[in-house]
Structures are given as C-alpha cells and as structure tokens.
Amino acid sequence: MRGVSKHFPGVRALHDITFDVYAGEVHGLVGENGAGKSTLMGVASGALVATEGEVHIDSDPMSGDPDRARELGLAIVRQEPALMPDLSVAENLFLGMPHAKRPSLSALNTWARGLLKHWSEDVTIDPRDHVSTLNPEQRFIVEIVKALECEPKVLVLDEPTEHLASEDVERLFERVRAVTARGAAVIYISHRIREVQAIANRLTVLRDGEGQGTFDARNMSEDQIVSLIVGGDLDRTFPAKASEASTRTVLSTRGFSGPGFSNVNLDIRAGEILGLAGIDANGQREFMRALAGIHRGSGDVTLLGKPISIRNSQGAKRHGIAYLPGDRHREGIFPELSIRENFSIRSPQEDAALGLIRSGSEQRRTVDAIRQFAVKTPHGETPIQSLSGGNQQKVVLSSVLAAKPQVLLVDEPTQGVDVGARAEIYRSIRETARSGVAVIVVSSDAQEVAGLSDHVAIFSRGRVVDMLSGDDVTEDRITSSVLKSTEQRDRHHRPVAAFWKWAASNSAPLVMVAAAILFLGAVAGMWNPFYLSPRSLTGMMTFAATLALVAYGQQFLMMVSGIDLSVGPTMGLCQVVGSFFLLQELGPGSHVAGWVLLLLVAMAVGVVNWILVEGLRMHPMVATLATFMAVQAISLILRPVPGGMIDGDVMMALSMKVGIVPVTFIAAVLLALVLEFWLYRREMGVSMRGLGSRQEAARTAGIRPKLARFVAYVGCSFLAGLAAITMIAQVGIGDPRAGLTYTLGSIAAVVIGGASLFGGRGSFVGALLGAIFITQVNSVTVFLRLSQEWQQYLLGFLILASVALYSKSREKVVQA
C-alpha cells in the first residue's frame, strides 16, 4: 500500500499510509479503537475505495471491488463475520469461495463438512444449520474456515481470537503458520500485544489514522508498543475528581451475567464515577445495557442494600436507574420533535396534574435546562435535529437527569461531539456525581475514561479482569491493562431445545401449513360431504393456481427484502390488454400478439418498480403503492367498464383438466418445484437468499445487489402476468378490477408459507401451500355455512401463529 488516505464526510480516517507485507511473514497491525486498522484493511479488501493512494497484491493493482481482491488472492476475516444469517453454514462457505473452488450444490453439505473437518476433527458445527443458530465462537470458526480454504496469497485476520476459546486460539495459530509456510502473507490485527508478539514477525503501529512505524515484533517490549499506540499527553479538560471516598454503596452486582458478559461483581458508591473500559464488544457495554433493562441479565443486583429485579427498561427507570444511550441518533433523540418535547419526554410526571401535562411547568423546566446546560438555541420549540451534535447530546443528558435518578448509566458521553461541548458535558456528569448519584461511564476513548473516572473496571472477553483506582487511573495504565489482558472466553453456551431449532428451520412452516390444510379439509369433509366432491376440489385448485402464481412473484421480491403492492392491478391490466386481442373475431396472429404484449406489459411494470426502488431510492412499499395507483388508472382508462369477451376456444384451453385436476394447477405445482430447486440448488437462487439475509455480507461475497433486485422485480411482474392468464379462464372478460384482491392474498400466502418480511427466508412450495390454504379457507366457510368474518378469523389466526412461532424460534436460537 502506497500513500493511502481515506476521508469520510468530516473525518480523516487514514492519512498517507505506506504498508508492506512480505511473502511468508505474519505482519501485526496494532492501534487503539478508531486508529484506522479496520479502515485500512477495508481499502485493501476492496470494501472501501481509497481517497488517495494505491494498493498492489503480488504486483497487480487493486481497485475498490471485493471480487477483484478475491481474484488477486486476498481473503479477510472481519471483526464481525461477513456471514448471511438466513443461509446455512454450507451455503455461506459456498458463496465465500472463488468461483473456481465452488462445488456442485448437490454435494454441498458433504463438501462443507470436509472443510470444517480441516479445522478440527471434533468440530460440532453442522453444515446444514443456519448461521443464525450458531454461537459467536462457531460463527468465527466458519468465517476463519471460509478464508483459509480460499488458499489466499494474503490472509487478513481482524481481531480473530475475540470469540475463540483457548484451544481454538492455538489451533488458529497452527493454521496461520501453515499459511506462511507455503509462502503466503498474513496480516494479524489485534489489541492483544502478547498475541501479536507470539505470532508476528513484524508489526506496524497506527495512531489517529497515521503510521507510527514498522518494527521487529520480538525486539520490542510490551510497554514500548503501548507507548507508541497511546502517544501524547492527557488533555486537561476534565473537572476535578471526587476529593474523598464515599462509604455509601448505591448499586451492587454479584454474579451478574447476560449476553456478552458473565459473573460481574462491582460496587458503585454515591458521588463517584466508575468507568468501564476494554476493547469494543468485550462485555462492558452489554453489562451497562443489562443494568438499564435493555437486555435481560441474571444474578444479584442490589440498590441501596435492597435486592431488585431488572426485567425491562421501565423496571430500571422505576428503580431510579437512568440510561444515556451512546447511539444518539437511533436511541437518544426524537428528531422530529422539539427541544421541549425531547427534554420532557423522559420525566412527564414532573409536569403532570390529574393525568394532564401542564404546559407552563413543561416550558419552565425546559428553559431552566437550556440555561443550566448552555444549550445553544433560540428557544425550546426549535426542532432538535437542527442543533449541533454537542447541543443534542446536552439536551439528551438534561432529559435523563430530569428524571432524578439514583444511578446514571452513560454510554459514550461525547461521541460525535466537538471539543468545546465535551468540557461542558464532562462538567455536567461530574456535578451529577457530586449530588450523590452513582455514575457508570462506558467509553471507547481511554483518555476520556481516565479523565472522568474515580475507578475503572477493565473488561476482557466478558469478564472484569482488573480494577484501577486513585493514581492508577491513567490513560497509559488503562490501555496497558487492556492490551496485556490474557483472559480467554469460556466455551459455555446455552443449548437450544430441539423444537426451537426445528421451528427456526425452513421446513417448519411447510409442515405447519400442510397439517393445517389436512386438518381443515378433514373437518369440512366430515361436516359436509359435498366439500370433497370432484366439482368442489376442481374449483379450489383452479383458484389456488392463480393465487399461487402471483404469490411466487411476491416470494421472489420478499427474498431480497422487497415487496410489490402493484401485482393485483398488474394482473388486471394484463387481462384488459388481452381483452383487446384474444377475441373470437380476430385471427391467430392477433392472439399471438396479445399473449406477447400481455407479458411485456407485466415485465414493464417490474422494470418501472425497479427504477423507482433502485434508481430513485424509494421505499419498496411507497414505490409499488404509487405503481398500484398508476397501473389501475391505466386499466380504467382502457376499460372504464368491463368489456371484450375472450374467445371461447381460449377459455376452453385454459380450463383443461387431467381427471379432476386443472392443468393450471399442475403447472403451478411443477413451477413451485422448479423454483424451489432453483432457490436452493442454483447459484443465483442462493445468492438472492444471501442478499436478502444480509446485504453487506452478500456484496462482500461478490453478489451484485442491483442485478439481483432487477431479476426479482421483473420476475415478480412476469409471474403476475402468468397469473393473469389463468385468471382469464375465471373472468372471461376484460375487467380492470379483477385482480385487486390478489395483492393482499399473495402477501398472506408467502407469509403463511414461511417467508420473512425482512428477506433471506422463504419457500416457493410454502407459497403454494399458503395459496392452497387461503383458497381452502374461503371455500370451507361457505360449505360450513359460516359468516364471511370466519374467513378473516382463520387466516388471521394462522398468520399470527406462524409469524409468532418463527419470531420466537429465531429469538431462542439467536440468544443461545
């Protein structure tokens, strides 16, 4: 890398970095949080494009394209594994390989099992499991295996041991030595100096986006490396710390554990600030959020000597625990509301009388807060989103303190705040502590933690590994303690019950819906024998075929996190177009033109939707709602009233049967099987599922989002056109309103069949079963002489039941 710089809006992440890695060496890359290590490797891997400078791999120039980097022989293991959660382990490994190394999808699981065995003979990862069901350690192993099996020229490992148990750390080191033994290069990024020195030949230090030099890893002491990483002196903008220790413990935890942390024992006294420090994602932030009730924790928590239970954020608030979130934009402010509303929203009880808000009290408290916290604004009615980041943060802090907490939890107090505002925020936090409140602060800036805190708890891999107090609370000591930690993660993970693992699988919705179809059919058949008559079954299959075809189109889009509200009007427009050409008095040439034009019109709607969503960046629901109205308007212009009788021969051809089974239903079943095979056994299908599961990971794997979405939108409309053809046999005339009910019906069918509205999950066979079930419900209510409301009751119940089961199962496997 030569002269590499990278600028983001308002931020210089890298400046003039020159970085060499030799064949056969392990090159360590170290620095504090935010030093630029991951950004530098993002440029190297093609995920980011350098503002200036150039990158060469084995003398070949690199461009900002992950596919190009992979072709040149670079593989990267990221801090957050680039895996697609709704795909199986095997499918993730498949998409992570260069095209030349990908096996046949028919032998995918056997191939993947062999790769995992290369890592360890006793590996417990099943290649058929969805990545979402894996624990953090298993996800990292999959990511490492994926990178190693590419046999790269350059292997980048970004914090690879954070989630590995000790035996897997040693196993990783063995694999790294094997990589360099065959002449490849390894870049090893870690905050853990001892690990870097144990594995690296040379190391480069980054600080604030600039290189501090490259050194022989074994010829430097830990303290020398730490000094290079930290650099500079502590900025003296912090208020004086507590002059004398308090003896009153406000909050105490014993054996407190939760997602990301375990067995934390801490005491926080009145008037003091306890800082939590450590490498990101080592449990300190998770511990604080559990105290705030955002995550569930287990263990003993006492407040002023009394045991308390924190089940949710409302419970924490009732106990007097207030939380200042680190993500100001997503969790801190309400951007569309005024300063007054943002300030009072966390303490409405202070302004309430007889259940009503007293506007005078609210205005007075807001003015006092603006004055006390020196918020730069003309008045309290100013929209908070118009303020600077520092002033927004001061409003949020004043809002949290207005609730008069006994414990204040502060996450990243000055993130995105300028230097001037920082000093004022530090002063406010210290004054809050002096008033007797116990304060806990989490910050990724060691200088900030050192300057604010009276005591500092060092977290590593989910545990408190050191406690600093008094003169030991310095930036150097904090950084040194963090970097020198040798704590290893436990290999203890909560098992998931077999039922919940099954419920989170792709097969569960199919089994559920099939069982519901059989049960409902048996009940209706016993109640009214005519329900199972050939005429009744033929009618149901005819209507189910049409709904299934349009549902397949909807499934295409939901797979890539899209939705199409315009499918119903598109079906109506296609039928209207056909009603001008498929007439008895016109010849075969006109009929052929009508069929072709019908499908071209359908696909044109898909292209328009794709342009609105992908080109104009409109939300899919907004874009396709606009198309819904436009297409329906065109249909009404062409046929203000129904007209144009379809040729009887065409009607007869579309109504053909094999026994009692309509040909259209047979075609719908066969198409579902073909599309299901394509979805799970063809590269394009797996790629589309990956895109919907996690777009950034899919892009890193070389999937092109725009092309995949184009296929999805045009495919959806094409299938709506096919559904319109089958509908012709049922309507027989050009009716612009004929397809309107199919929009919601198609969405319901794919949801009942197991699709996720967030993308990445679904089944065409499931969509077929969903369509059959919906048609069956509509028929059963007639045969059982139930009111129309029962159609909605039955459909609504199954939709709620299936979505609830899916959501609960995902929650169970993700939390394990």
TrEMBL record:
PROSITE patterns, sorted: ABC_TRANSPORTER_1 (PS00211), ABC_TRANSPORTER_2 (PS50893)
UniProt domain ABC transporter: residue ranges: 1-233, 245-486
SMART domains: AAA
UniProt xrefs under Pfam families: ABC_tran, BPD_transp_2
Membrane-spanning segments: 510-530, 536-553, 595-613, 620-638, 658-679, 710-733, 739-758, 765-784, 790-807
Any one GO MF annotation of this record: ATP binding
Principal place of residence: membrane
Membrane topology: Multi-pass membrane protein
A GO-annotated cellular component: plasma membrane
Subcellular location: Cell membrane
Keyword hit for Transmembrane: yes
Keyword annotations from UniProtKB, A to Z: ATP-binding, Cell membrane, Membrane, Nucleotide-binding, Repeat, Sugar transport, Transmembrane, Transmembrane helix, Transport
Domain of life: Bacteria
PANTHER family for the chain: CARBOHYDRATE TRANSPORT ATP-BINDING PROTEIN MG119-RELATED, GALACTOFURANOSE TRANSPORTER ATP-BINDING PROTEIN YTFR
Name of the protein in its database record: ABC transporter related protein
